[in-house]
């Protein structure tokens, strides 16, 4: 037997890019991960996301400039 290797699922191979992970999370599990810095959002959309985040999780740490 020569050099048989077993690599558990999730190790090695390729990594999905973060945008794909967010898109699949939304479509498959109805989870939404949004950055306030996303250029695709308008100011009112960013404000809504910020308010929801603060309501659910509290204000962000002071070190992030917000």
Notes on the structure:
- It contains two helices and no strands.
- The model has no long low-confidence stretch (mean pLDDT 87).
- With 66 residues, the protein is mainly alpha-helical.
- It has a domain at 16-22 and 32-59.
- The relative contact order is 0.08.
- It is 41% helix and 0% strand.
- The N and C termini lie far apart (59 Å).
Mean pLDDT score, rounded? 87
Q: Describe the main β-sheet briefly.
A: none
Helix-residue proportion: 40-55%
What gross morphology would you assign? elongated
Distance between the termini: 59 Å
* SSE arrangement, N to C: HH
Unreliable stretches: none
Q: How many strands?
A: 0
Which structural class is indicated by helix and strand composition?
Answer: mainly alpha
Number of continuous helical runs: 2
What is the quaternary state of this protein? single chain
Region (Disordered): 1-22
Q: What is the topology?
A:
Elements lengths: L17 H12 L13 H15 L9
Keywords:
mainly alpha, 2 helices, single chain
Short description:
Residues 1-22 are annotated as: Disordered. By secondary structure, the protein is an all-alpha fold.
């Amino acid at each position: 037997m020569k050099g048989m290797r077993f690599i558990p699922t999730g190790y090695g191979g390729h990594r999905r890019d973060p945008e794909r992970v967010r898109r699949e999370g939304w479509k498959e599990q109805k989870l939404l991960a949004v950055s306030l810095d996303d250029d695709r959002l308008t100011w009112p959309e960013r404000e809504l996301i910020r308010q929801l985040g603060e309501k659910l999780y509290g204000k962000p740490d002071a070190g992030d400039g917000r």
